[in-house]
Structures are given as structure tokens and as C-alpha cells.
Amino acid sequence: MSSPTAEPGPVFSPGHDLGVAIARIGWEVRSYVRQTSVMIFTFLFPIALLLLFSVAFSGMGEIGPPGSGLTMADLYLPGMLAAGVILSGVQNLAIDIATEKGEGGLRRLAATPLRPWQYIVGKLGQALLTGTVQAALLIAVAALVLRIPLPEEPGRWLTAGWVYLLSLTVCALLGIAFAGVLKDGRVASAAVIPVLLGLQFVSGIYLPGYLLPGWLSTAVGVLPFRWIGQGFRAAFLPEGLGVMEPGGAFDLGTVALVLGIWAVLGAVLARLTFRWIRRT
């Protein structure tokens, strides 16, 4: 009589693992949509600021070099696109993950077959989908309501695309990493929102970069936020207006280099700080 043998456990394949990660994206998006107040704030905040700044500074007329035809509304469109990416990536993910951790959600997920990388892919996918809808709404309002001229050259839309994808990746990874050192959602809100708001001001997101002291622009140049705004301005503003940047040019090569470095650094930080259960 043969001895009993243990039944084989479930066999996981790369295709199965990827399918779980994709399914997790759908779950994260549905969970996000159910948070009505968060969703409305995320979608409307950049649009409201663009409308507010455009109306408040409409009396300034033309700004920038003589004959440029640049208005404050034109200048704030790329700025609000950058702000939306930072909001969708860093702020929302940091607060969301910290809240799940504080409420024990991550501890419960640790008892399931879900792997950490699948959870992170779900968060990245949710940020990408919701951030893309937000950016599309912002551009539509800019063109249809404020009559802001949009780029006509396909190359500039291609620039906007890679700047957007790279920027959102950086911000989402930093949001995940930031959440790893926060205790819960209440601590996250108090820590993340003021810090990000201040960094956006000194990085030329809400204030034109040429109004900031040179030493300050140089100091914040080690962070990704200045380069996110500069990349979007390169895509949406005429090429000759690069003279208004702190370095005197849009310099997309440096934008790509800095954001690429931060993407790698963000991935490393997210890997080091993310845990299902917070260390005590």
C-alpha cells in the first residue's frame, strides 16, 4: 500500500501573476472612484486653480519677452498639468497607502496570495488611469473655456506624452516610498500636503520660475518637481520662451536625465520602505 502524498499546491505562472496585477489595477480604480470627495478634489483642484489664476491675472496682458503673446493663462496650463501629476502621484498615493496601513488593510493583504509588486502595480495603474483623465479634462477646459492655444506640432505632443509618463512614474513611486515611513492617513495628510505645496511654489509650479531667486532654483533643482514643470512648459510653450527658465533654455535632455534618475531612486526607495506590516 502506497503512502499518502501531499496534494500539490497552486502553481503560479508569469501569465497568472500578470493577470492578478492587472486585475488589481481594476480593483484600485473602483476603490478610488468610490471615494467621491477624494476623486472630486483630485480632478477639480488643478482645473479650479487654472481658472482662478487665469482670471486673477487676466489684467496683466502679455508677459514674457516682447511680442511673445504669452499670458498668465498660457503659463499656468503646463504648471497645473505638473501640479496634477504631483497630486495624483505623490499626495494621493502616500495618503491612500498610509490610510490602508493605519486601518490594517495591508496587514490583511499580507495574509492573501497577493504579492507586493502586484499591489504596487495596482497603485501605479490607478494613478496612471486617473491622472490621464484629469490631464485630459484640464487640457479640454483650457482649450474650450479659456481659449488657450494648444501645440499644433506632433513632436510637442510627443514631448508632453513622455514627460507625463515619466513624471507620473516618478511621483507615484515617491508616493509609495513616502507612505512607507508614515504611520497612518492622518499623519500622512498633515505631513504630505504642506510639504508638497511648499515645494511646488519654490519649484516654479505655482510661481513663474523667473520670479524666483537663482539660488533657490538651483537648490530645488536636485528634486524632480522643478523639472516636471519645465518639461511641461517645453511641450506647451513656444520654444523661444525657454529663455525664461532658470537655465535659459527648456533643456529637455536634462529634464529626461533628472527624472530618469529619480525614477530609479524612487523605485529603490519604494522597495526599501514598503512593507505589509509596519515595523514597531
Automatic annotation (TrEMBL):
Similarity-based family: Belongs to the ABC-2 integral membrane protein family.
Keywords, alphabetical: Antibiotic resistance, Cell membrane, Membrane, Transmembrane, Transmembrane helix, Transport
Main location: membrane
Top-level taxonomic group: Bacteria
Name of the protein in question: Transport permease protein
Cellular localisation: Cell membrane; Membrane
Domain ABC transmembrane type-2: from-to ranges: 37-280
Topology class, membrane: Multi-pass membrane protein
